[in-house]
Design a protein that fits this description.
By secondary structure, the chain is of the alpha/beta class. About 40% of the residues lie in helices and about 15% in strands. The chain has 15 helices and 15 strands. Strands 3, 4, 5, 6, 7, 8 and 15 form a 7-stranded mixed beta sheet that branches. Strands 9-10-11-12-13-14 form a 6-stranded mixed beta sheet, with helices on one face. The protein is globular and about 75 Å long. The two termini are about 35 Å apart.
Length: about 500
């Protein structure tokens, strides 16, 4: 039965995130996250550390296979890697993530077996600490499919992210699963001793969290400094066409014509997605040499850039956002700092030589030197390129340096019609709540959207459609508790579990 419980927990956990199979979206199943781990937790009670490792690893295999299957599409359809190798790399990746998950259970069980403490007092802290580490290690980390991100559709529950980040939500979800496991175990054994105080404490904790969430959603909050009229061009350029030099002119025409129309509609700033301009350009010269359709407005466009100084011994290319004025002046730029392993550069090239095709369309890029907002007309915009918005510390640094709003320029065409684009948007919801900033998403193939400071999706576009959007972006200057204190909860959790181990 333990094996069945592990598989069941893994599948239910994987389905708790936004999910598409074969182009068909499942309904919001985020509520599964409140009890999906109960089957596994129950069968791990009093188990040996070895059994805990095996069962939790199996659960992880199913969890990440369901929630992150779309990585195969990126490697095979657009990376040029054969199906066999793509499957092998995908499962290697899933094995690493499952190892992280197993480590949570192994450390928890090791502490529980030696102290006799209830898992309710141990596992939530270990879970938060290890998910924090997974967001940083290895290769900069990958926080995708952390259980807190299952709750993008339950806004009252996730407002505490402005205090503790996504980790506060993760903590409560693990507590929920542990409490239900405790109740089920006691019911099976017809025991009641010691249950009521624990359940009462958890009930109070959840009541306080929901009360805080509804309070934050009901209050108007500070008035915006101003509202910026912006346009978004969702060009819907197929991934296989983006770097074809023979049709570069056609691609520029799509964005140029859309820019002209949005400017006529009243947009002061027009956003082009990540790598939307298909020609490499210098970032450090005064003039932008191409016509992009703006006369009075400014354009913030994504492109691959390089320095125009010939004295550089090594020609470095960056994934950049350029701010271009109506008179073709380059006003500011931001180089993406957190690059995608195997998508924008290949780590450990000597070992992973077979993965070189993944970067064939964009080259081997160099990270920027700093996370810094772009200055536009006296205001600061925190630009998050591609998956930089999945890392809470990046948005927090942008806002701590004065960003009045967040802008995500991304291209999710790599993942086809899959769960990835919808899951990606949930990350942006959390970044908005954590920093209490409005966030606008400009995407190549979708999902373009506007998210308010409470994580509510004000509007969103479709997937794989060519469309232009006009919206109003509010700018704020207040700072949330999370922006001020950072990742205090996971750091405290790390210190706590080290103390437990000692």
């Amino acid at each position: 039965m333990g094996w069945i419980a592990a598989v069941l927990s893994g599948i239910l956990a994987g389905l708790s995130y936004p999910t598409l199979f074969f182009g068909h979206a499942l309904p919001n199943l985020g509520w599964l996250a409140f009890f999906c781990w109960v089957p596994l937790f129950y069968f791990l009670t009093c188990a040996s550390v070895r059994r805990v490792f095996v069962l939790s690893f199996v659960a992880g295999l199913f969890h990440y296979s369901v929630s992150m299957y779309w990585l195969y599409t990126a490697m095979n359809s657009f990376g040029g890697i054969s199906p066999l190798v793509s499957v092998a790399v995908l499962f290697l990746f899933i094995f690493v993530l499952s190892g992280y998950l197993s480590l949570i259970f192994v450390i928890s069980q090791w502490i529980i077996n030696r102290t006799g403490w209830n898992a309710l007092w141990v596992r939530p802290w270990v879970w938060v600490a290890l998910e924090f580490l997974r967001g940083h290690l290895p290769m900069g980390g990958l926080p995708w499919s952390q259980i807190g991100y299952s709750q993008g559709g339950f806004l009252p529950f996730i407002q505490n992210a402005d205090l503790f980040g996504v980790y506060g939500v993760t903590f409560l979800l693990v507590v929920s699963n542990e409490t239900l496991t405790l109740l089920f175990s006691k019911w099976r054994r017809h025991e009641t001793a010691g249950v009521f105080p624990k359940v009462a404490m958890v009930f109070v904790l959840f009541t306080i969290n929901l009360a805080y969430g509804f309070f934050r959603l009901e209050q108007s909050g500070p008035a915006p400094l101003k509202t910026l009229p912006i346009g978004i061009v969702q060009g819907n350029i197929p991934q296989e066409d983006k770097w074809d030099p023979q049709i570069a002119g056609e691609i520029v025409s799509v964005f140029r014509d859309a820019t002209t129309g949005l400017e006529e509609a009243g947009a002061e700033l027009i956003l082009w997605p990540e790598a939307s301009f298909p020609i490499s350009v210098p970032y450090d010269q005064d003039n932008f040499e191409y016509e992009i359709g703006n006369a009075n407005s400014s354009v913030l466009l994504g492109t691959v850039t390089r320095s125009h100084h010939p004295s550089s011994l090594r020609r470095s290319f960056y994934n950049s956002a350029l701010l271009v004025s109506g008179d073709h002046q380059i006003l500011d730029y931001y180089h993406k700092r957190h690059l995608v392993p195997f998508g924008e550069y290949i780590p450990w090239k000597e070992i992973l030589f077979f993965a070189k095709k993944l970067t064939s369309q964009v080259g081997d890029l160099v990270p920027g030197e700093d996370y810094r907002p772009i200055r536009y007309n006296g205001n600061l915009l925190g630009v998050l390129i591609c998956y930089e918005d999945i890392f809470p510390e990046i948005a927090r640094q942008m806002v701590s340096k004065g960003a009045h709003a967040l802008v995500n320029l991304t291209n999710d065409a790599w993942y086809g019609t899959s769960s990835a684009a919808y899951q990606h948007q949930v990350f942006s919801q959390f970044r908005s709540i954590e920093t209490r900033r409005a966030l606008v998403r400009a995407t190549n193939t979708g999902i373009s959207s506007l998210i308010d400071r409470n994580g509510k999706i004000v509007w969103q576009g479709g997937l794989f459609e060519r469309k232009n959007y006009f919206t109003e972006l509010p700018l704020y200057s207040d700072r949330s508790v999370y922006v001020k204190i950072g990742d205090l909860l996971p750091i405290f959790s790390l210190i706590l579990i080290l103390g437990m181990i000692l």
